[in-house]
Amino acid sequence: MTDDRFVHLERVGVTFGTGKTRTEALTPTDLAIKRGDFVALVGPSGCGKSTILKLISELLKPSTGNIFFGGRELGAKPLRVGMAFQSASLLPWMTVRDNVMLPLKIVPPFKKDYRAERHRAFRDRADALLAQVGLEDFADKSPWQLSGGMMQRANLCRALIHDPDLLLLDEPFGALDQFTREELWQTLQDLWIDRGSTVILVTHDLREAAYLANRICVMSPRPGRIVEDRAVDFVRPRAIDITFEPEFARLVQDLRRLIVGAPKPPKADAA
Ligand SMILES: Nc1ncnc2c1ncn2[C@@H]1O[C@H](COP(=O)(O)OP(=O)(O)OP(=O)(O)O)[C@@H](O)[C@H]1O
């Protein structure tokens, strides 16, 4: 195995149900992701983006094909995954810090040390991450005392606290306003540059994909497959201003055409 195939889907297909309820979600698909890469999955609604994340996080088994992680079949060795979704789902009865520390309570090898009450170091680790995303003054607050953007910052911290092999993000900023979303893009880029995590991001926001990713995989309508694989070479760290550059706009327009086709001309005025 080379690091080029850190995550490898080989002819992976997914079909739900049988007979009349049979739905082919993913047609046999190949995807290889190198260690440390930042890959965005984009495509029309229902094309199988979340299905790919569920396969990689072992929440779902493929109907056909094989998935490899680090050169070995998925499941052969424990895979440490960090996940963040559109809903931050922080537990309301815990402080922000305790929410961030939650994976350390659950995920081996950390949970052994957590039980042994050696969690002073874990607390420091959570506080350092919270400081990195600008939440140093909110560690002792309850989630409901945070804005939506702050909750998603805490959510990213919780997804990263246990040093995951893979960070899987499913529309993490989908519920945020555009300005907050752009701030969070920068936060996520900083975390990625700092930690060198391997990231797979599912998003409907093509600007988000173009700003954040090194590589964008475009999927066809269901049954989904990858129909285009684009490298994104803008230099890092990327400033938000890059989103106003013609080259950036061209990339977003290309992606859009691949997903929804060429824009129709406006109808001539009937009057
Ligand atoms: N458990 C299930 N049983 C039956 N069909 C399912 C199940 N999970 C997903 N599907 C179907 O598989 C297809 C792919 O779903 P998936 O959630 O991966 O799409 P998606 O690209 O993430 O969609 P969206 O962008 O709207 O979130 C959809 O048609 C969906 O209805």
TrEMBL record:
Pfam family, one: ABC_tran
Record-linked InterPro entries: AAA+_ATPase, ABC_transporter-like_ATP-bd, ABC_transporter-like_CS, ABC_transporter_ATP-bind, P-loop_NTPase
Gene3D superfamilies: P-loop containing nucleotide triphosphate hydrolases
Domain of life of the source: Bacteria
Gene Ontology terms, MF aspect: ATP binding; ATP hydrolysis activity
SMART domains: AAA
ABC transporter domain: residues covered: 7-246
Keyword annotations from UniProtKB, A to Z: ATP-binding, Nucleotide-binding, Transport
Membership in a protein family: Belongs to the ABC transporter superfamily.
Protein name in the entry: Nitrate ABC transporter ATP-binding protein
Organism from which the protein derives: Meridianimarinicoccus roseus
